[in-house]
Fold:
Amino acid sequence: MERLIYTNALGHSVEFSSAGTYQWTQVDDLGALDASFQTSSSPYQDGTTSVGDPYFEPRVIKVDIQIVSSDLQADIRSLNRILNPKLGMASLSYERDGVKRVLNKVKTRTMPALPGGTSRGIGFQMSSIIFMAFNPYYTDEAYTEASVETGGLGLEFPLNITDSFVFDFLNTTGVTVTNAGDVECPVTIILDGPMASPLEVENITTGEKIVLAATLLANERLMITTEIDNINVIKKNLTTSVETVAFQYIDVAQTTFFYLTMGTNTMRITADEAEMENATIKFKQQYVGV
Structure:
């Protein structure tokens, strides 16, 4: 079965598929992604010179639907309430043949259109909606996660293994994780105390690292997120569940909030220069299309 599921910031969802109340008739376009380029040119130069890497524009998706209902007014009202872009960032999930991909930063650009004439009748209303995905990349629904366990020196993995999942492993130079997506992806690192300063998370593959002058007690957890528009460092008291911002511990001169490069990445995590055995690395692979 093929379907789209829009979930707003409050957790309320609406499904568009070939059956049900909100039946899609056409989707334009789930796959298309426009790239933009920086260029330069010299006097009398033929053409232009490409400068740097291209970047993708936000993704725009138009969905044409037919609302089939014995109470059109109520179901149209419900649709408007769920799609309201004032509620904040939403997600748009696409499912087909057992594969699920998610656009994570979505808002409704054009609310449901309600044309008259032959587009409306007893028990049905034709409509259309336009979504804007500010982050154009599809991701896996669940995180890929690797946990280094104290004493066991092993890895734990979630049961929801995707078709592109590659088992990671622990070796003498750190934890090796595999990003099987189409582009680099942000990472979340979770460190549980007790741990002694300085704390260092290094991507040996790229040479980038995150360094913190922080000490964690036995009941404290540090969470580091490297997503470019959601960079965060949070310390949490596991006894009281109180969270505090911990950016003040970052060694700015040595720190880069890195992404995982495509393919294998070897990560080394140390506390007071000793290898850690109690840390979790998790990420969602990113794709340029479904």
The longest strand covers residues 99-110.
